[in-house]
Amino acid sequence: MSIRNRRGLAPDTGQGNPTSMRIVHASLGRKMSTSIAASPLARRRRRAAALFLAPACVMFVVYVIYPIIRSIVLSFYDWDGVGPSTFVGLANYHELIHSDTFYSALKNNVIWLVLLLLAPPIGLMLALYLNQTVRGMRVVKSLFFAPFVVSGVVIGLVFSWFYDPAFGLLKVIIGHGIPVLGDEHYATLGIIVAALWVQIPFCMILFLTSLTSINPEVIEAGRLEGARGWNLLWHVVLPQLRPATFMAITLTVIGALRSFDLISVMTAGGPFDSSTVLAYYMYDQAIKYFRFGYSASIAVVLFLIMLVFIAYQLRRLLRSDR
C-alpha cells in the first residue's frame, strides 16, 4: 500500500498524465479568475471603467446614433421644418431617383472620390521625402503642413481669387484668363484641386508619423537581405504602414463624399448645378427650399454609400491582419 493510501487519501490515478494535469490547471485557473473577478477590487475597477465610459457613450448615442435614426425616420415624411409632418412613405426616394440633379451630384461625388484618392500616394511620397535627417527639414515640414491648418472657407476664397479670369494668378501664369469656376466643364475640377491642396498634407502627416515609429532594425535587416529601392519600400516599409494607409484612404473617401465647404464658398453648386455634390444638394434642399424630408432621404443615401465603403475597407484590413 502506498503512503497516500496509508494516510487515507484517494489514489492518484492521473499523476504523470499531462492531459489530466492540464485539466486540473485549467480548472484552478478558472476558479482563481472567477474569485478575482468577484473580488471587491475588480468590481470597483469595472464600476470606474463604466463611469469613465458613460459620458462618451451618452454623447455617441445622442450626437451620432439618434441623428442617424431620426434622419431615416424623417426621410419617410414631408416636413417644412415648422408645421406638422406628413407621412409620404417612399415618395421622397421615388422623387430622388427621378431627379436629374441627384445623378449630377452623384457623378460629381464619383469624380471627387477618384481624384481625391490621389492624395494618399502623393502624401506618402512627400512623407518619404521629408523623413530625412537633413538640416532645416523641420521648416520644410511646417510649410508642407500649413495648408491643413487653414480654414476651408479661407482656402475657398484664396482659390477663387487664384482662378479669377480678371486678376487671378492663374491668368498671370498662363497669360490669359480662364473662367474656371464659371465653366460647367471645369468648375468641379477646380474645386477638387483646392481640396487636394488640403488633403495631401493631411495624408502626409499620417504617413510621416508612422514612418517615425518604424523600427530601424527591420529596415537594416531588409537591406542585409538585399532589399533596395522599390523592393525595400514594397516588402518592408509599406506592410508596416498598413494602419496609416487604411486611415488615409478611409478619411479621404469620407472627405470626398461629404465635401461641402469649398463648394459652398467657390461655386454654390453652380453653374447650373454642375458642381453640386450630394452633401451640398442635401443642404440646398433643406435650407433654401425647406424640404427636410427630401433632404433626409439624400442624407440616408449618402450614409449608405459611406457605410458600404467603410465596411469593405474594414473587412479587407481584418483579413490582411489575419
From TrEMBL:
Keywords: Cell membrane, Membrane, Transmembrane, Transmembrane helix, Transport
Pfam families linked to this entry: BPD_transp_1 (PF00528)
InterPro entries: MetI-like, MetI-like_sf, UgpAE/MalFG_permease
Residue ranges of the TM segments: 48-69, 110-130, 142-163, 186-211, 232-257, 292-312
Membrane as UniProt keyword: yes
ABC transmembrane type-1 domain boundaries: 105-313
Membrane topology: Multi-pass membrane protein
Main location: membrane
Region entry Disordered, spans: 1-20
Keyword Transmembrane: yes
Compartments (UniProt record): Cell membrane
Family: Belongs to the binding-protein-dependent transport system permease family.
Protein name: Binding-protein-dependent transport systems inner membrane component
Species per Swiss-Prot/TrEMBL record: Paraburkholderia hospita
